[in-house]
Design a protein that fits this description.
This protein is α+β, with helices and mostly antiparallel strands. It contains 17 helices and 24 strands. The strands form seven sheets. Strands 18-19-17-16-22-23-24 form a seven-stranded mixed β-sheet, sandwiched between helices. A six-stranded mixed β-sheet has the order 3-2-1-6-15-14, with helices on both faces. This is Sugar (Pentulose or hexulose) kinase. One of its GO terms (biological process) is D-xylose metabolic process. InterPro entries: ATPase_NBD, Carb_kinase_FGGY, FGGY_C, FGGY_Carb_Kinase, FGGY_N.
Length: 486
């Protein structure tokens, strides 16, 4: 039995697999978020209690041959030397550091970081959050032994080892060629004096044995990482340069395998280092994916169970309603960084139905996915995973908008599956990767709907460009002279 643990944003999952990758058991537990205005935090002790519940449940009293851990990335999780939190963890969804990101964009720091690492900064990533803590709660960092990522805190509590991997360390401090923290980037972010807070980077993955008296039986081989984006790509069988993964989860995450490190052009997205030197995941991760759908369903009084009937019962184009799906209060991070980005609905009238509003959000999200995949350099096959794959009608819409077949990743729990495969590689345990990652289905596009959405996508890109101009103008300092002259 092989166990994968995936610490999601609000749900912790564990899956047990047999040697051929067949699911033996899956368990999930909530890990509540504490949201106050633009601040989103989590209590790590609640998160770890959820880890313990799901891991013990899937093991069922048996000792697994191996356990792999993956988790949500980014955020800031300051802990002491024993891996105990010194304050609540700050989620990647948090927006309190938006002002710092705006400063860094204005003074060139954000671009300098991207040119050095291939990774953008956004309000919920470690760099601005730690800079915010250093300015506003310095005693927290003084008391901390590690400014950790959540999977690494869990790994430390399971094994006693303080470490991280190249994927989590990538955003935004890792030198992508040297595969260790960049002192210049730490200094640029004002964190040079806090360098001791960063856990050692184990290349490619930290591996150890579970300690006695913990969640897993003592001696169980455990590996931490990679981060959930990379683990999902592994679990989905996305391995060749040019191939992409579309993860329709809380956050819409699109990534493409690349062996070219191109840091030119507009700073956008991320380059996650992988276990193989000279190969990266070019990641474009939007702030909102299914969370936007959840919002429109709740707002219109629609249940998730109605979604397929709504999409099947409405025509492409949603009766003229179009949506830019930038719903996050902290703005957008891919395929551009804009803290002031907000969702926009156009074409709404008194005759607009709730079904059309729902369909418009689904179409806007699909257009955003295509924008992200193209920005990441997609030129091969597309594999899809995540909670959004539960809607067959939405899956068909994604295939139509992308204009190409989409392979549905082996499920459930693609991230946990990838965590096990990565852990097996780390500990020298041979598993049949082809069998573990064989897609469960392929969804082909409809030629007529694909042609319609080709035009819709062009309109989407035009509306994004015009919205960015407005957001940029809104962000410029107010000038009395220019206002009078206008």
């Amino acid at each position: 039995m092989f166990v994968g643990i995936d610490i999601g944003t609000s749900v912790v999952k564990a899956a047990a697999f047999d040697r051929d990758g067949r699911i033996l058991a899956v368990e999930r537990a909530r890990a509540p978020l504490v949201a106050e205005g633009d601040r989103v935090e989590q209590d790590f002790e609640e998160v770890f209690a959820a880890v313990a519940r799901v891991a013990r449940a899937v093991c069922g009293g048996r000792a697994p041959a191996l356990a792999g851990i993956t988790a949500q990335g980014d955020g800031a999780w300051p802990v002491d030397a024993a891996g105990r939190p010194v304050r609540r963890g700050i989620s990647w969804m948090d927006g309190r550091a938006a002002g710092i990101v705006a400063e860094w964009i204005a003074d060139g720091t954000a671009e300098a970081v991207y040119r050095a690492t291939g990774n953008t900064v956004f309000p919920g990533c470690a760099a601005p959050l730690l800079a915010w803590l250093d300015r506003n709660e310095p005693a927290v960092l003084d008391a901390a032994a590690t400014a950790a990522y959540v999977k690494d805190v869990a790994f430390q509590r399971l094994t006693g080892v303080r470490a991280t991997d190249v994927s989590d360390a990538s955003v935004p401090f890792l030198d992508p060629r040297g595969r260790d923290y960049s002192p210049a980037v730490l200094e640029a972010c004002g964190l040079g004096r806090r360098a001791g807070l960063f856990a050692p980077v184990h290349d490619p993955l930290p591996g150890a044995e579970a300690v006695a008296g913990g969640v897993l039986p003592a001696g169980t081989p455990v590996a931490a990482g990679p981060t959930d984006v990379t683990a999902a790509a592994i679990g989905g069988g996305v391995a060749e340069p040019g191939d992409g993964l579309l993860n329709i989860g809380t956050s819409l995450v699109c990534d493409v395998v690349t062996d070219v490190l191109d840091l030119s052009g507009e700073p956008s997205g991320f380059h996650f280092a992988t276990a193989e030197p000279g190969r990266w995941l070019r990641v474009m991760a939007a702030m909102v994916g299914t969370a936007g759908l959840d919002w429109v369903l709740e707002t219109t009084g629609t249940s998730h169970g109605e979604l397929d009937a709504i999409l099947d019962g409405t025509a492409p184009g949603a009766g003229g309603v179009a949506v830019l799906p930038f719903f996050a209060p902290s703005g957008e991070r891919s395929p551009f960084v804009e803290p002031s980005a907000r969702a926009e609905f156009t074409g709404v009238s008194l005759r607009t139905t709730r079904a059309e509003l729902v369909r418009a959000v689904c179409e806007g999200t699909a257009y955003a996915a295509r924008h992200l995949l193209e920005a990441a350099g997609l030129r091969g096959s597309v594999t899809v995973c995540g909670g959004g794959t539960g809607s067959a009608a939405w899956l068909r819409m994604f295939a139509d908008v992308l204009g190409r077949p989409v392979r549905v990743a082996a499920g459930p729990e693609t991230g946990a599956r990838g965590a096990v495969l990565a852990a097996a590689d780390r500990h020298g345990i041979e598993l049949d990767t082809t069998a573990w990652t064989r897609p469960s289905a392929t969804v082909d596009p409809d030629p007529g709907r694909a042609a319609f959405h080709e035009r819709g996508y062009a309109d989407h890109l035009d509306r994004v460009a015009r919205a960015r101009d407005r957001w940029a103008a809104r962000a410029r300092p107010y000038s009395t002279r220019s206002a009078l002259e206008s």
